[in-house]
Amino acid sequence: MKTVAAVLTICVMLLLGFMGCSKEEPPAPPPKKPQRIKIVKPPKQQEPETQKAQIPGEQEQEEIPAKEAEEDKAAVVAETPKKEIPKKQLEPVKPLGREEKPGQMPEKGVVAEKAEEVTAKPTGVEEKPTQKLKKGTEEKKTEEEEMDAYYIVKKGESLYDVASREDVFGNKLKWPILYRLNIDALANLRTEGDVVERALPEGLKLRILNPDEVEKNLEKRPNSRWVVNVLSTTTNEEVVPITMTLIKNEYSAYLTSATVKGKDWTRLRVGFFTSKEEADAQGKKIRDLLHISDLWSVKLGPMEFAEFAGY
Hints:
By secondary structure, this protein is an alpha+beta fold.
């Protein structure tokens, strides 16, 4: 009896529950199979040569998520080496006598040589004071050497006085050498016996010969030992005018002294010839010029030759 009552009770409760649920909205239909939503990515700017190359053997993927694409891009940028800006290169030097064609590379080592040249001697650098001092010393030395070949006449000095000076010739009888070397400056002198004792113009610049020039002249006349003895006299009145005449006619006239039987003589001679025949031929010309008959040729000894042949 209790069992039948319990079954009836359950049936009543089920009926009541069914009637309460019938008043609610019907449940939503079961969802259909979800559709795959395609994500549309914004257009991507193409960068040159940054696309990751596909590894052979792997399957192609339909799409690369945006996050993975950004990671791949960062990896590519990180692996790309930075291009260093080269330092300013030296301008290549063109070799002398060779032209470079447009686009042609300079020869190997030219840039290095240019760099060494720039380092060794920079352009525009002034000379050191020591170099200027050295140049000034050389110029001064050259001027002094040039002045050694001249003599400036002092007040009251004559041809005798100048020729007698130790820094000139050291012998007054060598005045004909002064006259011959300075024929243009002394051309207006009168051809009189006492002209060699008269004062010359003060400050007159006279050409002389230094020892080196004398030595060179001697080397040019190793065998020219013959001379013409034109005149032998004891006075200047006769010998001075004749000597000046010979020099004006381009003869190498000189005066030397000799003592014969206790008497001093001045000899006027013209040189320098290589043989007696040559000296005799010049003697005839001098005889016709001066109208002097008493002259002869003579061969010099070593002492007289060394003393006068260099002038």
